[in-house]
Amino acid sequence: MTSRLWCSLLLGLLPTPGRADATSYQLTGFTDILSAKYSFRPQWSPDGRWIVFDDHEHTSSYDTNPYKIYRMHPDGSGAECLTCNRPEVPLNSGGAQFDPSGRYLIFSAEQAEHYRLPAKSTATDPGGGIFNDLAILDLQTQKITRLNVVGSALHGQPPGGTLFPRFSHSGARIAWGEYVNKGVAASRFAAWRIVVADFIAGPQPHLENRKTYTPGPRPDIYEIQGWTPDDKALVLSCAPLPGQDDNALDIAQMDLATGRLKQLTFTAGVQGQPAEYEEHAELSPKGDALAFMSSTGYGIDTTRFFITWLKTELWLANADGSQPRKLTNFNVPGKPGYNGQRAVVSMLSWAPDSSSIVANVYYFPDLTHHGPTPSHIVVFHFRKAAVTEVPDVARAPAFALRPHASTFLEICP
């Protein structure tokens, strides 16, 4: 091999087998399938027949009634509660996801007894996860099992928590975020760790071979979003760079073999990157596109709690985070979905055939409002254009032009 040919290979200047580009997904519109004050965290079933989500029981108020897990058809019909009137989970239950077979539903479940928090605290909600155990519902037998029980901060136990458990594509493993402690002063959302364990279905559902990770510059928030198609890495929202503010979270990928992080969005607010907030990402079923929520274009505020200022839209990028583009304009006057209020596009999930994304969209009456808000579950529809194979040579210049290109390399814990 000549030195010239070798250099060309290193620089990525020779054509290589292409990969589908995310621009082949063309948004054609969206449908609001459910409008309710407390409907959050939708996820699609593997057969496409159901969307599971969290909501309060409709017979009581926010302050006295916990979240429960519901499911409905993709058109919003046939809603039914899956964890109502279940003594095994008397308080909050939610943040659920189906296993690949559709038989099991993994979720977080608040403990019946734990250290008492202030009356209006949302820390034990499915989006907070404090004093929540890891639970599973067998939809065939209707049995609920707590797979992992955390500390209750009672009787000498430390406080614990569980956030957004996610099945691997094979169904053989489960990953989730587990609360550790309050963390350092810079830890806006406390210190957590990533836990991965083997799921054993029978004769009694349980976990084996538990392994923990704390990647990045410090133990911090790790919000599991899902797995890569080969189940070798996790997609998560976190702060992967030293000095990064938690109000500028990024989407990253963690290699399970090495525990190393790789940025997928590049808005950390350090190392020359702009500061924006990204969360709630998921790779498409074919692994050719990354959907996520982002504040890009609206900015962030590092002096206040994020929910008091956050504005986000639905974004789509290639699986490696390149070529990001905004799909919605809920915060732009005159655009579809704008109603004069601050909008947040939140947790999302791809349909199994990649034809659509279901997401949570909620509005704040004013820029300082904090508390229950009008919430919507919205299905975004795509037309899949003829797949254009984009060789890697076309991607190389975009990488070369980014500041601090070394952040594309794996970042050691």
How would you describe this structure to a colleague?
The protein is mainly beta and 413 residues long. Helix content is 4%, strand content 38%. The longest helix has 9 residues, at 3-11. The model is unreliable at 1-19, 59-63 and 387-413 (pLDDT under 50).
Features:
single chain; mainly beta; four-stranded antiparallel β-sheet; 4% helix; disordered N terminus; disordered C terminus
A few lines on this structure:
With 413 residues, the chain is mainly β. It has helices at residues 3-11, 396-401, and strands at residues 19-20, 25-36, 40-44, 51-56, 67-72, 80-81, 93-98, 104-110, 132-138, 144-148, 162-167, 173-181, 191-200, 206-213, 223-227, 233-238, 250-255, 261-263, 278-283, 290-294, 313-317, 325-326, 342-350, 356-364, 375-384, 389-390.
The best one-word shape is globular
Question: Which whole number gives the mean pLDDT?
Answer: 87
Q: Give a count of the beta strands, DSSP E runs of length 2 or more.
A: 26
What is the succession of H and E elements? HEEEEEEEEEEEEEEEEEEEEEEEEEEH
**What is the tally of helical segments?**
2
Specify Rg, calculated over alpha carbons: 21 Å
> How far do the termini sit from each other?
37 Å
Which residue ranges are poorly predicted, with pLDDT under 50 across at least 5 consecutive positions?
1-19, 59-63, 387-413
Largest sheet: 4 strands, antiparallel
Strand content: 35-45%
Query: Which percent range fits the helix content?
Result: under 10%
Task: Classify the secondary structure makeup into a structural class.
Answer: mainly beta
Which quaternary structure do these chains form?
Answer: single chain
Main-sheet strand order equals 2-25-24-23
